[in-house]
Amino acid sequence: MAISIFERWGLNPREQRMATAAVFVFAGVLVLAIPVGLSMLVSSRTQQNEELKEALNSVNQARGKIRERQDRKASIASRYAKKTPALGGFIEQAAATSKVQIGDSVDRPDVNHGKQYVERHTVVHLKNSGLGPVVKFLETLEKSEYPISVTRLNIRKRSGDPDSYGPIEVGVSAYDRNAPATPATPAAPASAAPPTK
User: pTM of the full predicted structure?
Assistant: First the structure.
């Protein structure tokens, strides 16, 4: 049938052979180009899908990190929700439960840390004691439900006794969060009529 088309066009035998070869080459290129083009399309889509999967994985991992940050922020906020009681009385109570004796305590002036936090500091001198009760005392302070930290610790070993230390100087800081100032909004009078157009 192809020959009859070529004969209708008036091609001589040499031109017919060249036209037939050109048709076969075109058909071969077409047969090869379609799968190659489709495979390139599939590979580009696969690459796009992999990039989307990576983006989704990073978002899902970030959700976990964000949740951890929110939990940490909530735990900090709950810890600062209660104001720490007077440090002198609190430290004496912790010392009584740990069976250590307080010689004296000195309150230092408050220190502001930014606009939201205030540090109250007290230095306590403990009388001679063994290391076990002192460690229990420090642990009681650190594990309290209030934002308290031991900021100074100076221990001197006494000669003669194997487990005798003193005097022991302990600096304890409590951190209080100031309530954020809320802007006062003027209240609209209740009897005011809505504006008319």
Answer: 0.52
